[in-house]
Write a structure and sequence with these properties.
Order of helices and strands: HHHHH
Number of helices: 5
Radius of gyration: 27 Å
Largest sheet: none
Oligomer: single chain
Distance between the termini: 67 Å
Helix content: over 70%
Structural class: mainly alpha
Number of strands: 0
Length: 152
């Protein structure tokens, strides 16, 4: 349940991405001279999906449920904005966005593992430094004890 709760903000961003850019795609397909808008929409949807997947992977590691949900969330906007349900375009897009989400999640997982190793290394270094500080303090304490005994 914790993993699903961690997914929700990322899946909301991905679904908003699909709902924002899908109408542009359908509208632009009817306009013949809007190639720049089409390029922006066709580049932005995968870029946002990839970027959000990388961010999810860096914070939560790899999760195949996330990949499946990110690809399935592509289907409702396609249906709402005029495509027949389970058409070739819809299924092809869902598969493509699933692959994009998988690639982003895998890259994010690599960053997650590297960060985890760095944290473990830092933790080992800090635990090794503590005894050294204690060893420096102990001889001084012993000298002070010796001085107080000789003064008495």
């Amino acid at each position: 349940m914790k993993k699903i709760k961690a997914m929700i903000p990322f899946l909301i961003v991905i679904s908003l991405n699909y709902f924002i850019f899908n109408p542009y795609l359908h509208f632009i397909l009817y306009l013949q001279g809007a190639h720049i808008l089409f390029t922006v929409a066709i580049v932005m949807m995968p870029a946002v999906c990839f970027g959000v997947s990388i961010i999810y992977g860096t914070s939560n590691s790899m999760n195949f449920l996330y990949v499946i949900l990110a690809s399935v969330l592509y289907i409702p906007p396609m249906y709402i904005f005029g495509r027949p349900i389970l058409s070739e375009d819809m299924l092809r897009g869902a598969i493509i966005f699933g692959i994009i989400a998988l690639a982003g999640n895998a890259i994010g997982m690599i960053f997650y593992k590297l960060d985890k190793r760095k944290k473990a290394k830092r933790q080992v270094e800090t635990t090794e430094k503590v005894p050294e500080e204690d060893e420096e303090v102990r001889p001084q304490d012993e000298l002070q004890d010796v001085e107080t005994d000789s003064a008495s």
